[in-house]
Amino acid sequence: MTGIFSRDKRSSLIAIGVILIGLLLFSLLTTGNLNLIGTEGFGAYASTINAGDFSITLLSGLLRGMLLFLVASGLSIVFGLMDVLNFAQGGYFMIGAYIAYEVHHTPAIIAAVPDGNLRFLLGVLLAIAVGGALGAVLERGLLRPLYARPLFQLVITFGVSILLLEAVKLIWGVSPRSWSTVFGLNEGSFQLFGQQFSVYRLFVIAVGFALIIAVALLLQRTRIGIVIRAGVQDSQMVEALGINVRAVFTAVFTLGCALATLGGAVAAPFLGASLGLSTEFLLGAVAAVVLGGLGSYEGTAIASLLVGITQAVIAKFGVQYLNQPVWESLSPMILLALVLLLRPSGLFGKE
Amino acid sequence: MHIQKGFQWRAVGKNWLLIAAFILLIVFPFLVGVLTNTDPTARRGLSVYWQGIMIELLIYGILTMSYNILFGFTGVISFGHALFFGLAGYLMGAFQRAPELADGGLLIGILVALVVCAGIGLLIGVATLRLKGVYFAIFTLAIAEMVYIFLSRYEYTGSEDGFTLAALPEWFDPTRSRLTFYYIAAAIFVFTFILIRRLMESPTGAVLLAIRENENRARTIGFNTLTYKLMAIVLAGILAGVAGILFTLLNKKVGPEMLGTAYTVNPLLMTIIGGAGTLLGPAVGAMGLRLLELQLRNVQIPLGDVVLDIGRILPIILGAIFILVVIVFPYGIVGTFTRWRLNQRARHAERLAKQAEALKSVS
Fold this sequence. Notes:
The complex is a heterodimer. By secondary structure, chain A is mainly α. Chain A contains 14 helices and 2 strands.
């Protein structure tokens, strides 16, 4: 992780730049009321661009990107360190959403903690705690005996993701929950070029940015960060130096799962809680991790935002031009397929 | 080694278990008929009920055996095996009920479904099998999910409900002549088993095993591992497609749930519990687990005040069993049994050697 501006990564940065510009142009085209048959020329077209639609699409993309980052960062660091792709990560996101929803909507808790903001905070904290605990259990109890059998590790994380789905089905049933109560943070909205955008979503974007920086600082400036980075390079060497890599594995895995549940919890007020979140966010996050290059933190952060914005653009395009909301649900899979087909080594990947 | 002429009794002795299973498969409908005192050729009754269950078990067996080619023998994990199973059902159904094709639709549908399964397997394989194994797992999951969303949202494919098949020819209809359908399913099951057994006894099978053990080594020796892996995925895709077609014919309807995670997780679970990488394991695992599931589905255990509904918590129980098996019992039922028997034999041989040694020292 020698900074993203080093020479060997310049081409990747240029590639990202081109993709970003392309995406922005695309979203301009899709959000503007494009009339190609018209004879007024480009100038007239440019004036019809709907700045409100455009900025809202961009903000929604950033929002989704932040949520994806919360799932993808754990995936990426864990994969770099232990060579395990945690298929249960999407399940943790889903669990987070259900916990935040339940804490906010259970009558008993409403009676005990009437303040909406406080209750929401409580829900988020509980989600993080549960996510971390489940993560630690998964790593220590289930993955640790299997480091010699990587094929079965993959199978077990997949099995756990199915178990989480079944557990949620058993507790909450199959019908999705949508957030029905309003609380302080969730209330406000602001105008942007004539379009409404909720303050809460902006808040989530800000939290996401703060976490990107926080995790980066953790990796760059702390001792455990150094060990993690060294472990990504060569975990056997780190172990040979007398560092307890296994303990670091558990810590990183716990952190990754806690971040994913946090993502689910903060997303619950606008996405609600449903079984579909699991696969949707897993595949989106995997797309981001692969696009960013397996094991590269900066790559994952940038790619998460790219994937998020692309998804928002696809969703907008699908609804506006094809009148098919199905494209929004398909977008993570399409993106993943494209990334795997076109550049499986990722933008920042070594190989 | 000399070539034996005439009937090889030794081969019968070695394969007595398989031969017994084969005979049981043939007499099963009549055995059930005698035991339940019902007519196996009738259209309803206990006999027909058990034939239906057995057909379902055979289909699960075919699906699981196809999964085992990938996971057990080649060491490639697919998280989207339901894709082949469900898509084949949908394609066959779409052609079968097309009025323009009349009776030929069924045959065309089956052919198209199998060709598409092979083609998709080839495409997915070409795209991702060059890379690390995990990419293949992700890619299959993504494609299966994509097709699932597509089929479950589009009106043409019947959205969430799927669609029912047109009337089948009398002799082939699983409700009107179930016994015939049973023998068709059993024949395909036996054929699949023999095919996989022949494959794994051939040099190609040895290369697949070598890929599972260490792909780099297999490549260094000079095998084009990609070709072999592609062959495995195409074969697995076709066989899963066959299972999907049989399943669709049996139920006379298709629905998006055929592409859901259940039909990926179940073969995985059944392969591991039965014994990944063994010939008999997947069939044993699939039939045993499915039978257990069917029996436990309606069981309710009263525990004090609450009634424990086993059917509802069954997926969780199966998940827990699955995790337990992966960690403490990784060779599955058949794998563990084979190992135990080999161990016994080795010990027996050791004992004989010791006795011989003792005799020698006496003389």
